[in-house]
Specification:
One of its GO terms (molecular function) is glutamate dehydrogenase (NAD+) activity. The protein is of the alpha/beta class. The chain is about 50% helix and about 10% strand. Bound molecules: NADPH dihydro-nicotinamide-adenine-dinucleotide phosphate (NDP) and 2-oxoglutaric acid (AKG).
């Protein structure tokens, strides 16, 4: 991103707003690194509150411990959530009493692999997505929930932190089972929201403090959830359909307002 910004600026003058995801020293936004995981945490909080539950006291299973998964795990742990199983390519681990996420981060940052972490036992990777838990967070790949494993999912809530982790067949199976799926289009939007904040800061020529970035992100995630919820209520549909309907309606409304007829 730094190179793209630099090349573009050579031809058009200093243009930091031309691309987002830049290093902080070149006009990137504070809070962008954690933004997707933080947005996932805010989305989870909003969804659970709807069901009279909270992160604290709930159990979580997380697939993927990269940017999204590791930030989501840390922030959920900070909020009192119990991460009971977690996996990446190097291994899959579990601890019924809750994994000490800061200790696991330290282990990983020192070059250790998940399977060698002393605070948990190694488990079979194929059991991760169907492990007993309140909330399942796929934070790795698309298509991991499919017709093969969806019937065995035990989570009550799935937060789609990765892009399209649930394929359409699995979506149908999970809905029939009563599993609540929070769609990726909303759940993992924290990254693109803070990229938007980066653009806003660049065109303002003013850098926000991280606290402001996080506070604005919280506001956006909460109000988006309320809007999706209202759409689901008025259309009697699930969260994925509610989120899509909201998005498509906004584009349609803007198109008509600009003078284009449907
Ligand atoms: N980063 C962002 O801002 C955003 C990301 N997303 C989506 O979130 C998902 C994750 O992105 P991000 O965290 O940035 O990516 P990273 O590359 O940082 O992390 C991916 C993680 O998934 C793990 N992984 C890969 N394959 C498997 C597998 N077969 N089983 C278990 N774990 C696996 C990787 O393990 P290992 O480290 O061992 O390779 C790694 O821990 C993607 O779908 C991405 O599109 C969506 C919105 C924004
Ligand atoms: O950084 C961004 O602007 C968006 C990132 C994102 O949505 C993704 O990686 O899927």
């Amino acid at each position: 991103m730094a190179w793209i910004f630099d090349e573009y600026s050579k031809f058009h003058g200093h243009s930091p707003a031309v691309v987002t995801g830049k290093p902080i020293d070149l006009g990137g936004s504070l809070g962008r690194d954690a933004a997707t995981g933080r947005g996932v945490m805010y989305a989870t909080e909003a969804l659970l509150a709807e069901y009279g539950k909270s992160i604290s006291g709930s159990t979580f299973v997380i697939q993927g411990f990269g940017n999204v998964g590791s930030w989501a795990a840390q922030l959920i742990h900070e909020k009192g959530g119990k991460v009971i199983a977690l996996g990446d390519v190097s291994g899959t681990i579990r601890n019924k009493a809750g994994i000490d996420v800061p200790a696991l981060m330290k282990h990983r940052n020192e070059g250790g692999q998940l399977k060698d972490f002393h605070g948990a036992e190694v488990m079979d990777a194929s059991e991760l997505l169907v492990h007993e838990c309140d909330v399942l967070l796929p934070c790795a790949l698309g298509g991991v929930l499919n017709r093969e494993n969806a019937p065995d999912v035990k989570a009550k809530f799935i937060i789609e932190a990765a892009n399209h982790p649930t394929d359409p067949e699995a979506d149908e199976i999970l809905t029939k089972k009563g599993v609540v799926v929070l769609p990726d289009i909303y759940a993992n939007a924290g990254g693109v929201i803070v990229s938007y904040f980066e653009w806003v800061q660049n065109i303002q020529g003013f850098m926000w403090e991280e606290e402001k970035v996080n506070m604005e992100l919280h506001k956006y995630m909460n109000s988006a959830f309320q809007n999706i919820k209202a759409m689901c209520k008025s259309q009697d549909c699930n969260l994925r359909m509610g989120a899509f309907t909201l998005g498509v309606n906004r584009v349609a409304r803007a198109t008509i307002l600009r003078g284009w007829e449907a």
